[in-house]
Amino acid sequence: MAQQSLPERPDRSARLGRPVGATAAGKTACGVVLLLPDGVPTGTRRPTSRSAAAMWSLAHGLAKAGRPEGLTAHVVRYRYRGWNGPAADPAQDAEWAVEEVVRRYGDVPICLVGRGMGARAALRAGGHPAVGSVLALAPWLPSQEAKLNPDPVKHLIGRRVLVVHGTNDAHTHPELSYRLVERAKKINSSVCRFEVHTDGHRLHQHRTEVYALAADFALGSLFDQDYARPLADALAAPPPLGLRMPLAAGFGASLRR
Q1: What are the residues whose beta carbons fall under 8 Å from the beta carbon of 4, sequence distance 6 or more?
Q2: Which pLDDT tens digit goes with each residue over 98-145?
Q3: Is 115 in contact with 142 (CB distance < 8 Å)?
């Protein structure tokens, strides 16, 4: 009996998503944040609008914080909703999105910000020459792959990398992101990781603090501003201190640069 072939995947294109911030207001983009939504392990259907919508509040928050500097944010729309094994489709879409930013805006600093599966895509695409910084929120790292075939980190040399993970994440174990940044820190001193105690995969419980940390990292990385003291300390601290930095309650309420 002949083996039945799998159906071909639909021919689709990724989309950059409408701009929020400087260019939406008719101003020049001086720095760009690309936000990469979460997804599912496998799936070749279009992502739901809900996955992108979950990043809009962060996109608006970052654009508002970076308004004086000319920050523009885009929420990337993937071709497919799944990671899809070796294809790593969201990582490919993230690389395409970086190229599209360069085509549209020229030589501007770019920060990749991803959540869950999008965080893994951001880390994978972080080696693009136009990317200077990567923020990974609760990165989805399958335990079997992390053990047998861990994600590469050498391409992150020269980038500023921040990972944020809830200690009660039941979707992807926080120790997996610790192991990844531990490897990255050995070859790149500009890597740190914050732990959000008692929070889960979506980081809802301490969203205000997480968003404030995200804004401080993105603006500091894109526009060479001084980081807030906790973030600067985390980047400077040796392992494991700088990789298990607790995110304090109230972070962002009275930042002093």
Answers
A1: none
A2: 999 999 999 999 999 999 999 999 999 999 999 999 999 999 999 888
A3: no
